[in-house]
Amino acid sequence: MCSDNTQASTPSLTPYSGQSDKEIEAWFRWKYPNGATDKSPGAYAAELFKSRPNRDDPTGKDEWYSRLTGAQLAILDDAKRVKGAEKDEKKRIQFRGRYDLSDEESRKYWALRDLPPVGGKMVEWDRARDMLRKRKSAAPRKNADLSTMTPADAEQHRRKQNAEAKQRSRARKKAEQAAAVQLAPATALASTQAAPSDDIAALLAILDAAEIAAENDEANRK
Predict the structure, then answer these.
(1) Which percentage of the chain shows pLDDT scores above 70?
(2) Are 202 and 138 in contact, with CB atoms under 8 Å apart?
(3) In terms of Cα–Cα distance, which of 136, 156, 176, 161 is closest to 215?
């Protein structure tokens, strides 16, 4: 305690527990002559924590915390808030990239996390993520840039694309065969436009989209 009282009586630019408000203000003016920024509380907190006793001195650490002033606690809270906001922003940017969203879209959906839960569940947030996952899975594949590949990698990519095209072709034939089985009875065979079941129709639509994407990919390679 005595050492801190002595330190407080002499103006100091080195943060310590129990530092006076005037000394804190002087530190910020010295460190940020052009004005404090969002990073300022974190910088002060980092310097302040350097004055903490070692881990093997729990009593000293308790005394250190007990001497923190209201101004210092407020600065530490600000530093924690800014740090949390930075982490949250990084997660939002990752979320934006994961679902290929514009910055405006990502902020709109990201804000849904702050809505109050309903029945213990984040209904709107869960609904938005489910919608984005479905939209992403239904989107056509992005074309690979063969110009950035080595000849060996490009050839391997072409073989993979050809194999996938054959798989889609086989799957489409099976779907068409299944659709034919589910057509109207023989009395309605005159009309060959009978629609397959909803499940088969959905599968055919997916295969159509996959074939279109493959054709676009092939056209871009040429």
Answers:
(1) 70
(2) no
(3) 161
Structure tokens at 41: 């509380």
31 three-class SS: helix
Instruction: Sort 23 into a burial class: Cβ within 10 Å, 0-12 / 13-18 / 19+.
Output: buried
Rounded to a whole number of angstroms, the CA Rg of the chain reads 32
Burial class (CB in 10 A: 0-12, 13-18, 19+), 150: exposed
Amino acid identity at 191: S
Q: What is the pLDDT of residues 126-183, one digit of tens each?
A: 999 999 988 888 766 656 666 777 888 778 878 887 887 788 777 777 766 766 665 5
- Tell me how far CA of residue 154 lies from CA of 95, 128, 137, 161, 218, in angstroms: 30, 37, 25, 10, 13
The string of pLDDT tens digits covering residues 62-112 is 999 999 999 999 999 999 999 999 999 999 999 999 989 999 999 999 999
Q: Is 149 helix (H, G, I), strand (E, B) or coil?
A: coil
The one-letter amino acid at 2: C
Among 211, 93, 214, 99, residue whose Cα is nearest residue 158? 214
Q: Where are the beta strands (DSSP E) in the chain?
A: none
